[in-house]
Amino acid sequence: MHLPGRGRERKELERELMSKTGMDLLRRINVGMDPLRAIGTWGEFAECAVAGRGDLLCLVLRARGPVATDCWSSAMLLACWGPLERLASRMRRWDEDQDELWQEVLTGFLGAVRDLEAIPLERSDDSLEERLVTRTRDRVRDRYRRAWRRRRTQVSTCLSNSPDPRIEEQRKAEEDAEHSR
Q1: Are 147 and 91 in contact (CB under 8 A)?
Q2: Residues sharing a CB contact under 8 Å with residue 55, sequence separation 6 or more, in sequence order
Q3: How many other CB atoms are found less than 10 A from the CB of residue 44?
Q4: pLDDT digits (tens, 9 = 90+) for 122-166
Q5: CA-closest candidate to residue 87, choices 69, 68, 106
Q6: How far is CA 164 from CA 44, 153, 155, 157, 161, in A?
Q7: Using CA atoms, how far apart are residues 151 and 55, in angstroms rounded to an integer?
Q8: Which among 24, 36, 40, 84 has the fewest CB atoms less than 10 Å away?
Q9: The pTM is what?
Q10: 120 φ, ψ to 5°?
Q11: Could you read off the pLDDT of 53-72 as tens digits, one per residue?
Q12: CA neighbor of 17 nearest in space, from 71, 64, 66
């Protein structure tokens, strides 16, 4: 499922990558490619990513350089755009605000990319996309679980302040059980 407005965001990301730093990164990515499959623009890069060319992530990872830049993180995001949209689509019931959910997915992905920076380049393989998406899913799920737990705690706290005698009796019973231990 394509989430509304995401195509526009992807095009904006492509425009941001058209900077000198972004074009230098694209040249470094092309160094590791077969000349017949070289990518000339970030638009072509995005099309290849959507088409499912899994080698793009490994090429971007190898083109990283000694320090990861914002351009590099953006290229990783662009290379995983399709799988991240599918992930957000599967999570759409988690949050009524789909823009908020998308931001959580992007934040989780960038955290997963930061974790990935510690992986030696020779360890990168074809399962890189799967590992990134799995780590992203885990990060987003943990964040939502914390929010849900906090919300449940707030609801139970509100209920414990309720004048309902049954709730008051249960609270006293719980306190007595605590003291008797």
Answers
A1: no
A2: 126
A3: 13
A4: 555 667 888 889 999 999 999 999 988 888 887 666 555 555 666
A5: 106
A6: 64, 18, 15, 13, 9
A7: 42
A8: 36
A9: 0.72
A10: -60, 145
A11: 667 887 888 787 766 678 88
A12: 71
